[in-house]
Design brief:
The protein is mainly beta and 119 residues long. It has one helix spanning 26-31; strands spanning 5-7, 10-12, 18-23, 33-39, 46-51, 57-59, 67-72, 77-82, 91-98, 108-109, 113-117. The chain contains one helix and eleven strands; from the N terminus they run E-E-E-H-E-E-E-E-E-E-E-E. Strand 7 and strand 8 form a beta hairpin.
Length: 119
């Protein structure tokens, strides 16, 4: 079992920024693909961003240029910097991990952290 613990969610006005963090086992951070998946009520889940073990990143079109995924191997933590937030970014954000990025949505997930973007 891989335990993933998210933090950093909250409420922000449109145009604002938030940074999400995900604490994970060291081996998971260094050797697995990790990413962020969001789920809003009555909407399909979306893989927002992923970061493979070699540092290659991938982003959903809806967040390109606004969100940045990074990790700190020494701190065993994954981050998601979210800028220029829009109301449609409101969702529960889950940290996810899998040995391969293709399996991210079917891998291990954290409990999620809520992000609300509203004026």
């Amino acid at each position: 079992h891989v335990q993933l613990v998210e933090s950093g969610g909250g409420s922000v006005q449109p145009g604002g920024s938030l940074r999400l963090s995900c604490a994970a086992p060291k081996h998971t951070v260094t050797a697995w693909c990790m990413g962020w998946i969001r789920q809003a009520p009555r909407q399909a889940r979306e893989v927002v961003a992923s970061l493979d073990k070699d540092g290659a990143t991938s982003y959903a079109d809806s967040v390109k240029g606004r969100f940045t995924i990074t990790k700190d191997n020494a701190e065993s933590t994954l981050y998601l910097q979210m800028n220029s937030l829009k109301p449609e970014d409101s969702a529960t954000y889950y940290c996810a991990a899998d040995p391969r990025c293709a399996g991210l949505a079917r891998g291990y997930w954290g409990r999620g952290t809520q992000v609300t973007v509203s004026s």
